[in-house]
Design a protein that fits this description.
six-stranded mixed beta sheet, about 325 residues, five-stranded mixed beta sheet, 12 helices, elongated
Amino acid sequence: MLLPVRDGEDHVDRAIESLVGQTLTDLEILAVDDGSADGTPERLARWAGRDGRVRVLSQPTGGIVPALERARAAARGRWLARMDADDVSAPRRLEHQLACMEESDPLLAACGCRVEYFPRRGLGAGALRYERWINGLVSPAEIERDLFVECPLAHPTFFLDAEAVRAAGGWRDAGWPEDYDLLFRLRERGGRFAKVPAVLLSWRERPGRLSRVDPRYSPGAFRRCKVHWLRRGPLRGGRAVVVWGAGPNGKRFALELQRQGVRVAAFVELDPRKIGKRIHGAPVVSPADIGAHAGAFCVAAVGQAGARDQIRQALTAAGWREGADFVAVA
């Protein structure tokens, strides 16, 4: 278990307690103190003295990627698991995830589990919507289908094949979410992903969480990451793109495509006021006219509830194949 922590004295005891109490007892807990200035080092030292499975590593403040890589370098097992120091794992989390990796698809490189944000009080509509979405993706096919929408496995739930992670280059800081980037690199090497269909992690929601405040997790950083991996996948060879949706999401995604050298052939839009106009140099067409752009790749960039499924149905009915000819990116 890789457990990076900085200034975590308020929650790290509960986190480690949930790990030493796992039904899967053959584990090591590699707690990396990332330059804490509070009582975290003392709490970690007490745990190491109490349970020989807890090993404490210390480093100057460097961030989550160096901390994870420090722990990975010290790990001795075939499997790697992740958790943040303010989250809580259910007692059978690792048992269930190990079974998923050993008994499911032999190509699995990683699995997650369902999550529940806590404390529930004060959770916003966006957090609840994301929780429903990520918990709804379980099978490898479901996760693959929505891979370009957002990161489909919660990072603190990662359970990974250590050799696959090594071959992919481990965690890295590319200027966008390190967990998302790692999944794409595992996928590029043929890895697949799954999820245990049970809530096995309590995921702490708080305003100062890294994913809320660090620019590497901003919407723009996610777009850069998605376009980068689209270019390394279905857009190889200079394939043009049709952006379904000429609203704010579609326009921003089109600009990022153009910034990374991808030609935007057209926008598809339902609003009759936009059809016939040009946006960022590309014509806006109706869904009925998308056939004129056969051979292009379509990205569905409409974020409204239900729109993703409607676009999928329309494109599939028109003969476009999800994954090969289109993906949802919002």
